[in-house]
Amino acid sequence: AAFLRGFRAIYLGVFFNIMIMASVSLAAIKIGAVMLGLSPVQTMLIASVVTVIYSSLGGLKGVLITDFFQFFMAMAGAIGAAYVVVNRPEIGSLSVLLNHEAVSPKLNILPDFSDSTTLIPLLIIPLAVQWWSVWYPGAEPGGGGYIAQRMLSAKNEKHALGATLLFNITHYAIRPWPWIIIALASIIIYPDLQSLATAFPDVEASKINDDLAYPAMLAFLPAGLLGLVIASLIAAFMSTISTHLNWGSSYVVNDVYQRFINPNASQKLLVNVGRVTTVVLMGFSALLALALTNALQAFQILLQIGAGTGLIFILRWFWWRISAYTEIAGMVISFLVAIYFELIHPNTGLPPIADHVRLLYGVGITTAGWLLVTFITPAENDAKLMSFYEKIKPASFGWQQILKRHPEVAANTGQLPLELLLLFISCVTVYASLFAGGYWLYANFWPAVISTVVAVSGSICIFILSRKLQFTLAKDDEAA
Fold first, then answer.
1. Per-residue pLDDT at 475
2. Using an 8 Å Cβ cutoff, are 324 and 3 in contact?
3. 35 and 213 in contact (C-beta within 8 Å)?
4. Helix axis angle, 324-339 relative to 295-306, nearest 10°?
């Protein structure tokens, strides 16, 4: 378990974290090239230095405060940019954009159910496999440090619950639509990659990809709004990077340096180690960003590395047999499978494998591997397991074998049915909010009304049921 703690800190807080920051930095490189005429190296030097300074000096509180204001700056800039872009002479208005022959076929919120090439990777795989099987930062099955860090910094459990729900609604349902509108407009003005390359001859050829269209569209903005939008994009970049720098350095400081290297370190020394770590993480992510070519490439790598580990992080709460060996095996196997598909397979001469098929292979191989390791390695001792059970109070159905050996410990019936109901309603509410925004923008009246009613009804149910959940938790605390 001690090794696992250090291993996870390096695996997630360093290697995985660097990949995430590199993908975000790649977006900054493309924005800097199109909107400011900066080279990739210039962009990373400026962005890295500024973000590292305030992240290392301010710590978590500084990150939280700046994130709060930067979100509103980013949203204001994105909405303003979308308004200006759709009213350009080449487009005319939102209604003209949506009725354009190149755009109208792309307005379906759900994929074509008769086209398996889009239905399977874009809908079936995420709904049937990806959500429970793939570890991805910010959307971790079974919970994880990325979100837990913010929840644990909240005033109390009620605030943590509400803030997390608010984050999911703003992140998934509100924030994407200005981006989507600008993306749709870019189809008209820049119909292919060659048109982008022609319009921006100074941008490196390796960086000319579909994700360059967004900053290319922003180049049309008038000077005043352009300044606001650039500020909002810088704010979005700094907000994300500062979060990851703080998250990664906390892993290294608490789970590696203090745990294994210098247990008696003073708080001042720990803070200084955290600051050095922040600089190092930013340096490596900047170097990796210079090597990447497009955002989808980085996203697929992240999914592949996390494929097959998600189920471990769900079952560890509900099944006593999950152990440190299980988690280590899952992370090692998924990483090796990702290395094979990303670096080895393309050079074997074998036919290429679609991204969603590689994901399925990764999930299957990794899951089979960690299950095998789980059953051939020893379980945790009963004292440790019962300590965990009494502290966490998970539902007892996956702990029956241990509880039978310890009849003195009362089985916890838990609130799993209520919690699962809240989970389902929350997911439906977030998706309904996302769809409602799109249908209203697309002037699709009845689907918009239905989605809105579902979103409002879900919000009311969450409010009522979460109050019942919180009351039960408070009662348990009083009894304890």
1. 53
2. yes
3. no
4. 140
Distance of alpha carbon 222 from alpha carbon 290, whole angstroms: 30
* H or E element in which residue 23 lies: helix 17-35
* CA 236 from centre of chain: 14
What percentage of the chain has pLDDT greater than the value 90?
Answer: 49
Share the mean pLDDT of the chain. 88
Ordered DSSP codes for 279-334 = HHHHHHHHHHHHH---HHHHHHHHHHHHBTTHHHHHHHHH-TT--HHHHHHHHHHH
Q: Which of residues 239 and 17 earns the better pLDDT score?
A: 17
29-71, pLDDT tens digit by residue? 988 888 888 999 999 999 888 888 877 777 677 778 877 887 8
Integer-rounded Cα radius of gyration of the chain? 24
CB 425 within 8 A of CB 465: yes
3-state helix, strand, coil in the chain (%, to 5): 80, 0, 20
Question: Facing residues of 134 across strands?
Answer: 307
pLDDT at 303: 84
Cβ neighbourhood burial of 417 (10 Å; 0-12, 13-18, 19+) = exposed
Under 8 Å between Cβ of 313 and 142:
yes
